[in-house]
Amino acid sequence: MRVQIKRRGGIAGLTLGAELDTEKLDPDTAAQVEHAVETVVASPPASEPAQPDRFHYEITLPDRGKSVSVSERQLPEDLAPLVEQLADEGEIQPS
After folding, report:
1. Considering the entire predicted model, what is its pTM?
2. Cα four-point dihedral sign 15, 94, 40, 85
3. Neighbour count for residue 79 (Cβ, 10 Å)
4. What pLDDT band is residue 47 in, cutting at 50, 70 and 90?
5. What is the helix, strand, coil percentage profile of the chain, to 5?
6. How far apart are CA 42 and CA 50, in angstroms?
């Protein structure tokens, strides 16, 4: 599954973005991440008030034209491998 993910905010206020593929993960982790992405996109959590210095994530499924924005507190734990991939492979983008 192709996933575009952007992380905004934090102390530096930078935007980090990447297009990732769950095929780079081991099969069990990929299935877990894909299920979590499908769930959060299908049923986005209610928006929260902005919190200084916290991260905010935008997750997009480009092949399906769907996206969702969530705060770091709302990010499902099962998406941790995707966030780790973002930290490893992401590039700083203009805000």
Report:
1. 0.90
2. negative
3. 21
4. confident
5. 35, 35, 35
6. 22
Segment 42-71 mean pLDDT:
91
CA atoms of 48 and 66, how far apart (whole Å): 20
79 CB contacts (<8 Å, ≥6 apart)? Answer: 33, 36, 37, 40, 59
- Which amino acid does the sequence have at 43? S
Rounded CA-CA distance 83/45 in Å is 18
pLDDT over threshold 80, residue 82: yes
Would you give the distance in Å from CA 89 to the centre of its chain? 13
| Residue 92 backbone phi and psi in degrees, to 5 | -65, 135
Distance CA 31, CA 28 (A): 5
Phi, psi of 32 (to 5 degrees): -65, -45
Encode pLDDT of 83-93 as tens digits. Answer: 999 999 999 99
